[in-house]
Structure formats: structure tokens, C-alpha cells
Amino acid sequence: MTYDILILGGGPGGYVAAIKAAQLGYQVGLVEKNALGGVCLNEGCIPTKTLLKNAKVYRLMKHASAYGIHIDDSAVTFNWTDMLSRKNKVIKTLTDGVKGLLKKNGVTVHNGYGEVLNPTTVKVGDETLATKYLILATGASPVIPNIPGLKEGFERQFVYTYSSLLNYPNVPASLTIIGGGVIGLEFATLFSSFGTKVTVIERLDQILSAVDDDVRQAYLRLLKKEKIEVITGASVTEIQTDAVVYEHQGSSKSIQSDIVLLSVGMKPNLEAFKALNLETTKQGVVVNAHLQTNIPNVYAIGDITGKMMLAHAASAEGVTAVEHISGKDVSFSFDHVPSAIYGFPEIAWIGLTEAAAKADNIPYKTSKFPLMANGRSLAEGETDGFVKVVVHPDTGEIIGAHILASNASDLLAEVVLAIKSEATIADVANAIHLHPTVSETVMESALGAIHKHIHI
Ligand code: NAI
User: Fold this and answer.
1) How far is the CA of 143 from the centre of ligand 1 (A)?
2) Which CATH number does the domain housing residue 80 bear?
3) Which one is catalytic: 435, 451, 453, 455?
4) What pTM did the predictor assign?
């Protein structure tokens, strides 16, 4: 049999593309060498969010007295093994769910490593699969830089990646994180919640380089309050038996810790389809706006394009690719992809930062509304953060939105919809928001952009 569409990789890019393709009536095959759901479901987004919820419960109990509930501090304990099993249960429920969805939609799953022989043929073990269209969705793996002692550090189980750290058998007393990006900071606030002494070592002059400056400054203050140490402008030179050695401001320093997390970026997995000789850049596979590679029947989606290594971007790209195959004139816009950093609190954003708007000479004005001035945030006892919008001063176009809040990732959704549907900041300001909700901070920030805030 020849498939209409064969998909390589069963992560959020691949499995969503497979379901969409089956819903459109295609004969669909999906090749996956590990568990369905990819990094996101098995060792990324979902397990970390599960553990962050555990941490949230623990933090709340530790601060229960602020809510008039008094618990003897020594009575609040945690069991990391139980937390890991909760995480594993959540993963199992979701991966079983994906398996069920694929089956229900008639997608044939091939378990095994798929090697692409040519644009219409993929080998999986002893089987050779033929297809009219091929969608590559093989994801990305951690970058492992060439640092002396790093390889040995991994072998000695002193150094971990996000994946292996998720199964570390206990909460370390101290953790050094190399790389102050999305993964590094998420794990920093996770482990610090359970009492781990966390130090983040970042090569650049600032952590979270993609984040708006106001958000970063406020976040840094919160990290300091949390006693998470951040060392920027530091270049790691060696991994020793129990220490990370780094150059900082002209001198060599070292920091000892129980373990180390290496989170210095991800690189696309290109190995399985190297026979295709696709056009690539340092970032990843080159695709057009329809996610087509330079071979017209071969599409590439998700992390392998290196554009936005985000699960939701991969899923949306998968849908675009399939719809394009079906003859629809659809394009993918990276301008509409939101980002988030989970942890305590969360950071979420879409569009340009204020600094980027300035650098691009785009006329803009900003408006900011603090959670402290929002009734619901006060009632919740979660007042850290703000909503900031960057808008065009004449047209009211929303150029960017940046939220620091305990539930920033949920709050951002209405701005994503506003941008996608080309609503202006006045539309957001004039939309009636439920009272009392934290979402009113988005409306207030919009009100500040069109005239004045009501509540400050
Ligand atoms: P990242 O690109 O976010 O951050 C890596 C950081 O490490 C950068 O700040 C970089 O300057 C620094 N760095 C690089 N080499 C270094 C060195 N030798 N020493 C010290 N610092 C060094 O990469 P990260 O955090 O590994 O995440 C990888 C990808 O996964 C990202 O593209 C991200 O979009 C995605 N992801 C997204 C999540 C989310 O949406 N919440 C969660 C987890 C991952």
C-alpha cells in the first residue's frame, strides 16, 4: 500500500498532523521510535507542568498562614518519589489518549526508527513504506557543547539534561544550571520551591534574551527574593568532579553543587532524513510559508525548522502542512505564535518586545498595569507581576504583549486572539471582562494604551 501522507515523528507536530490528515480523508501512516507524544508529552511540557503543580501546592501550604490557615511547618513534607509517580501517571494518561485518538482516526502507527530513503520511501525495521507526501517532524535534542569534563560529568551522573533530570531520584540540595534560557529558569523555580539551592550560569549579559526588558528586570527581582543566584556574562570552561568552573569578569571561579543541569539550547534532529539532502541552514530545515522543503512533496514542521521550538507552533504547522497538501492556500505566520516560561511566576508574551520595536524604528507606545491594583489578584494573594502592551500610537495595532503573572500563559490567550483577528487595543479595552478576574489586568493595560487606566 502507498500512504497518501506519511509522517515521521509522533510529537505534537507529527501526531496532530496525522489526526488532521486522517480527518480530511487521507490514508495516513505515522512512524515513531519512542513513545507517542514526543518530548513534550513524555519529558518536556507535560511532566514539568505536573511537577510545577506539585511545587505550587507545596508553596501554598508553606505560606498557608498568610491565608489564616496555620500548619506546623514541620508537618508539611513532600515525597519526591510520589511526585514522580504522579508525573508518570499524567504522562501515561496523555500518551494513551494520543494512541486512542490516532486509532480512532484510522492512522496506522509504525513503532520504530524511520529512515528516509527517498522522498517517497521510508524504511522502518524490515518494512518499506511508500507515500505520496512526507511530513518530517523529528524534533530536536539538547545541544551538548564542547566543554572539557562534560562528557565524563554525564557518565558520572553529575550532569543532566532536562530529560534525565526529570527522573532524578530525589530533590538535590544544590543545583547548578548552565544556560539561563527557558528550560533553565523553569527548572530553577521548580527545584528552588523544594528548597534546592539553585545557581544559574548564563553566557550572555542577561538571562532570557527573548523576554521584554521590564519583564526580565521584575523577574530577576523575584528570583533574588527566591534566593536563586543568577550569574551572567559567565563562560563555563570545565566540569570537574563536583564543580562547574567558569570565567567571570576576567577571573576563573567555580561553584560546587550536588548536580548540574545543562540547558544551553536544542538542535534539530536531521539524521533520519539525511539521504534527502534537504536545504538547511544552521537553524534547521529551510521551509516556505506552507512548510514545504525544497522537495515539493516533503514538508518539515516543528523543531526541525529551528524557527520556534514550541509544541503549539509544531501542532499549528502540522495542520498548515496538511491543509496545504489538501489544496488549501494556507500559510503559517510566526507572528501569531505566543511563548511562555512556566514556573513561579509565569512569563508569557507574543509579538515584539519594546526594545525590538524601538530597534526596528516602529512607532509605538506602551501601557502597563500591575497585578497589585487588581482585586482578584489581591484576593488570590498573587500580586507579583503586570501586563504590558506595546501598541501602534495611531492605529492601535497590538505590536506586542508581555505578561508576568502566576497564570500569565492563560491570560495571554485573549491577546493572541486579538492579534490573530486584527482587533485593535481599543477592542480589547472595550470588551467587557468578568469581574473580579485577573483578566481585567489585560483590559486595564489596554485602557491605559487608549486613554487612561481606571483603577490606578
Ligand atoms: P534557550 O535557547 O531558551 O536558552 C539557552 C541559554 O543558554 C541561552 O540564554 C544561551 O545564551 C545560554 N548558553 C548557551 N551556551 C551557554 C554556555 N556554554 N554557558 C552558559 N550559558 C550558555 O534554550 P533551552 O532553555 O535549552 O530551551 C531549548 C528550547 O526548548 C527553546 O528553544 C525553547 O523554545 C524550547 N522550550 C520551550 C518551553 C516553553 O515553551 N515553555 C519549555 C522548554 C523548552
Assistant:
1) 9
2) 3.50.50.60
3) 435
4) 0.97
